[in-house]
Amino acid sequence: MTADLRDLYQEVILDHNKRPRNFRKMEDADRKADGHNPLCGDKVTVYVKMEDGIIRDVSFVGSGCAISTASASLMTELLKGKTEEEAGALFQGFRDMVAGPAPSTHVDLGKLKVLAGVREFPARVKCATLAWHTVKTALEHPGGTASTE
Ligand code: ZN
Hints:
By secondary structure, this protein is an alpha+beta fold. The protein has four helices and four strands, in the order αβββαααβ. The protein has a single domain, classed as Sufe protein. Chain: A (Alpha-Beta Complex). Strand 1 (31-37) and strand 2 form a beta hairpin. The mean pLDDT is 93. The structure holds zinc ion.
């Protein structure tokens, strides 16, 4: 990766940390789950509104480090309009990118690629995947709690 691209990625992460997208409680959510990353202290609550098997709206609140906040923010932008299956495939692809043996080539991760650098910092992988674990819990076991431990 070139230095320029690295700077750009860094900028996107800082921007999403400073102005997280979809950062709000959702009063009429059908699914909701809490997530916790004890290693770093990141906490997140993810809200989802489903309609005909499609994620119509997704939002989050919480407090955590820049990586966890930026990752949650990017995730909410990407998941709107996706089916549960598509959301699962994105999570799989994202996990492969930051922690798998090799980055996945069959899922288009779009903007999530800005977090590819997390791969070089194993302690931050849990920060980056927390919101994803939490949305997965919200979809599969609404009201549950996800922990990265
Ligand atoms: Zn963190």
